[in-house]
Specification:
The complex is a heterodimer of chains A (about 300) and B (about 350). By secondary structure, chain A is mostly helical. Chain A is built from 13 helices and no strands. The two termini of chain A are about 15 Å apart. Chain B is an all-alpha fold. Classes of the chains: A mainly alpha (about 300), B mainly alpha (about 350).
């Protein structure tokens, strides 16, 4: 996995959404992975927000209270209020469901696409393999956000087109990864051994190549959820995703932009929440990756 | 011992012969290497050409994918209304855009427009897409180039200061890299805007075209990029610090700063150089968000307006242009890298 992430050869510049894994050999952090504990706590918090937002919210996220409009963060309204006096903290909690589902949905579609393309490119024989590999390269020529914008231009802005736009934008990077993983597995010693022992092609594929190629993806999936949320909120921020007054985080950002001079918390806080989610996803992904790697040894 | 002279002569002769065969083999190997190198570069050129052609095809298919009758859609986009159109009105649009031609003819026309550089006609503005793009390309290029230069400055300074300086400082440096690389442009830009333009009043809120107004948008693009390149450079930097030639340089009495700047840095920026093709694409994509946030003119603003209006020729024109820039930049980096280090396998 590290090989994929840190391979800095010109042929495979890493996708922007997967920062190269840090060569972390800090023993102290291994014994007390505080980062991981924090990430898990954040995850639990937002899963509660997703399943039962009313437990965590302090106010009705949709209740208007014009006399409370544009209050900076205070004890009653932890993250302040928006232009119609709605409590920003409660809106963020209630927005978690849509935001996280868009992120998870985009990841699911993206990884599925990547698996199909990556497998076709590495296992599909001469013709299919070459076509799929070229297709990945063509998709990869479009920067993620631009590919997503192209899709939104065709389908019009909505939550569904956002999911597919982000998925198609991020898929080529993962498809390359899948392809590299399968190719590595294909040429490995254990596959050679299995071939020498006379195992059938199908059983080698199902029992050796696929499991070994897919296992590292678990870590990628965790990171991808965070990155998908960032991309999706970028679309909303540009006014090309879920629109206000929805409490989806990107929509909160877009709504807050109008008031950035008077009420900066309306932009800064939802943005911070998205950053925290992205860091959380990356942290969990990196720990998973390390765990998988030490398991392989 | 008894046959001192003859064997000596023999040996000398055979050594000489061996040298000759070695030289011949060496030059043959060099020629072979050069041929492999040229073949590699030609292969890369061909690959890039196919990718570009594919990207153009994707853009063409995207225009076909617009839901509904295209002539009606184009007419409505142009008029800003969604109503049924009379056949006479539609006939004009159909003729102008050649919509009744077979798809293959449309495709050839499209490719011709691409090659001739007009990139097709805008649905909304009645003019060639290339004109619209050219008008706005300047500010975007200024922004992206400034951002890339700034990101190199930040990255080099930060990595030189923090890499390999004991576990605490190195870990802190690496953590800052990772965090910076993960910052979404819209958020970092908002923070910079709130702190430096609104809070401290050092910069204008709407950046316009002024030089001072360029700094915040450029920093917004530069900081994540610096973090990203920093991650690649730091790993290499710390590896290089362990190399014997660094010890040698130190033994010669060179100062720590001198060693870092003159020897280590040169060896460790190579991974970041290979990222620059990718960086260009990423920066232009980020420019879309930054231009919108700082109300700057440029390709990004044109793109967002066009996406909103479903003016697909503009959208695909910009997307294909940026894809082309990206492919060419990567190709150049690739070829340069192959020339610098011919050992790299061709994947």
């Amino acid at each position: 996995m590290t090989a994929v992430h840190t391979s800095q050869t010109p042929q495979t510049p890493p996708a922007p959404q997967t920062p190269p894994a840090q060569p972390s050999t800090r023993a102290g952090r291994r014994q007390h992975p505080y980062g991981l504990y924090a990430a898990l706590a954040v995850t639990v918090f937002f899963i509660v927000a997703l399943v039962a937002p009313q437990v965590l919210a302090t106010h009705d996220p949709f209740a208007l209270a014009l006399h409370d409009a544009l209050q900076p963060p205070n004890l009653a309204h932890w993250f302040g209020t928006d232009e119609q006096g709605r409590d920003l903290y409660s809106r963020i909690i209630f927005g978690a469901r849509e935001s996280l589902l868009i992120g998870a949905g985009a990841t699911a579609v993206s990884i599925t696409l990547a698996l199909i393309l990556g497998a076709a490119a590495s296992l599909g024989g001469r013709v299919v393999g070459a076509i799929a590999a070229r297709l990945i390269e063509i998709q990869f020529a479009f920067p993620t956000l631009l590919l997503a914008l192209l899709l939104v231009a065709i389908a019009g802005p909505s939550a569904v087109s956002q999911v597919f736009a982000v998925a198609i934008g991020t898929a080529p990077g993962y498809a390359r990864m899948v392809r590299a993983q399968i190719l590595t597995a294909k040429t490995s010693g254990y596959v050679e051994a299995a071939t020498a022992l006379g195992h059938s092609r199908g059983s080698i594929l199902g029992r050796h190549i696929i499991p070994n190629a897919v296992r590292p993806l678990v870590a990628v999936i965790a990171m991808s959820v965070g990155q998908s949320i960032v991309w999706a909120s970028s679309l909303s921020f540009l006014g090309l995703g879920v629109a206000p007054p929805s409490p989806e985080w990107g929509a909160l950002l877009e709504a807050g932009r109008l008031y950035i001079t008077h009420a900066p918390w309306l932009t800064v806080v939802p943005g911070l929440v998205i950053v925290v989610i992205a860091i959380t996803a990356t942290t969990i992904g990196q720990h998973l990756q390390r765990a998988l790697e030490s398991g392989e040894k | 011992m008894t046959h001192i002279s003859p064997p000596e002569i023999d040996e000398a002769g055979s050594t000489h012969a061996r040298h000759e065969t070695d030289a011949a083999a060496g030059s043959a190997r060099r020629t072979a290497n050069r041929i492999t190198l040229i073949r590699r570069i030609v292969g890369k050129l061909l690959g890039a050409a196919v990718t570009l052609f594919g990207a153009a095809t994707v853009a063409f298919l995207a225009q076909l994918a617009l839901p509904g009758d295209r002539a009606t859609v184009i007419f409505n986009i142009r008029a800003g209304q969604a109503i049924e159109r009379t056949p006479e009105e539609l006939a004009q649009i159909n003729e102008q855009y050649g919509l009744l031609n077979p798809v293959l003819v449309q495709y050839v026309d499209y490719l011709r427009a691409l090659v001739s550089g007009t990139l097709g006609m805008s649905y909304q503005q009645f003019r060639p897409v290339s004109e619209i793009i050219l008008e706005q390309l300047g500010p975007t290029l200024t922004l992206t180039v400034t951002a890339i230069v700034l990101s190199w400055l930040i990255m080099v300074i930060w990595v030189t200061l923090t890499a390999g300086r004991g576990p605490r400082l190195s870990a802190f440096g690496a953590m800052v890299d990772t965090t910076a690389a993960g910052l979404p442009h819209y958020w970092l830009g908002s923070i910079l805007l709130v702190v430096f333009a609104l809070g401290l009043g050092w910069f204008p809120v709407i950046s316009g075209t002024s030089t001072i107004g360029l700094l915040l948008p450029a920093l917004t693009l530069a900081i994540p990029l610096a973090g990203f390149m920093g991650q690649a450079t730091r790993a290499e930097f710390e590896r290089t610090l362990q190399q014997p030639f660094i010890v040698t340089a130190r033994m010669r009495g060179m100062s720590e700063t001198g060693v870092r700047l003159r020897h280590v840095l040169r060896h460790s920026v190579l991974p970041a150089v290979t990222l620059s093709g990718w960086a260009l694409g990423a920066t232009i994509s980020g420019a879309v968000i930054v231009e919108s946030l700082f109300s700057r003119q440029g390709i990004g603003t044109v793109l967002i307006t066009a996406v909103n209006a479903q003016d697909l020729p503009i959208v695909t024109g910009i997307v294909v242009l940026i894809a082309a820039l990206y492919v060419v930049a990567n190709l150049v980096v690739d070829v340069i890298y192959t020339l610098i280090d011919p050992r790299l396998p061709l994947s």
